[in-house]
Amino acid sequence: MRKQAAAFWILALLGAPAAAAELDVHVIDSKGQPVADAVVTVVAAGAQGEPRRAPLRGTSPRMIDQKALVFAPYVEVFRPGEDVVYRNSDRTRHHVYSFSPIKAFEFVLAPGETSAPLKLDRTGVIAVGCNIHDGMINYLYISDAPWIARTGSDGATRFHDVPAGQFDVRVWHPRLPPSARTWCSPASRSARTSNAAWISR
Ligand SMILES: [Cu+2]
User: Fold this and answer.
1) Phi then psi dihedrals of residue 108, to 5 deg
2) Which residue of 19, 62, 109, 169 has the fewest C-beta atoms within 10 A of its own C-beta?
3) pTM, to two decimals
């Protein structure tokens, strides 16, 4: 797998002027290419109170499929207490496992099988592999941030009903070095003003 440049950029673009508007976030790499499967979190900046946690898109339990010896999606986001389910759509067995301190597990899935739901109680990142196919890996990102989503193949994601205020927009991706995963920048907005900011480190 090609190593992506360890520098990503975020374009946080505020939606239509309204009391609670949409926030569009685009993540690109240093070559300007969209970065899929980046986890974007939006948190209140400064001392203002944390808003409620916005619900995640999609249904629970969310499914990680295994097809053509690849976990799909590569990265998925969860709220604490949600379940994940693994499915094997290949014609070979997979031995799914994690050594994560916040959730260790292993099970073998025969072709066509689906796992029992696995509850993800704690926040953090769980790396999951296959004991049979070393190249297979995926990441479960569990967060109680007010807003969290992952980018699609276009490197974009959209947050709804973001109130006026100051926010930090953060990005996480498996191929960003740990020191680069926590950078953030305020996405300043008001009821009447849109703004857009390129952010780099
Ligand atoms: Cu496998």
Assistant:
1) -100, 135
2) 19
3) 0.82
Average pLDDT over residues 53-72: 86
* Å from CA of 147 to ligand 1 middle: 32
How many A from CA of 72 to the centre of ligand 1? Answer: 12
Q: How far is the CA of 103 from the centre of ligand 1 (A)?
A: 19
Domains of the chain (ranges; CATH) run: 8-49+146-190 (2.60.40.1930), 62-142 (2.60.40.420)
Element spanning 129, H or E: strand 124-130
pLDDT exceeds cutoff 50 at 186: no
Measured in angstroms, how far is the CA atom of residue 63 from the centroid of ligand 1? Answer: 16
Stated as kind and residue range, the H or E segment containing 97 is strand 94-100
CA distance 46 to 36: 29
Determine the distance separating the centroid of ligand 1 and the alpha carbon of 86, expressed in angstroms. 12
Using pLDDT thresholds of 50, 70 and 90, give the confidence band for residue 194.
Answer: very low
DSSP string, 32-68: S-B-TT-EEEEEE-TTSPPPPPPPPSS-SSEEEEEET
How far, in Å, from the CA of 93 to the mean position of ligand 1? 6
Share above pLDDT 90 across residues of the chain, in percent, rounded to a whole number:
46
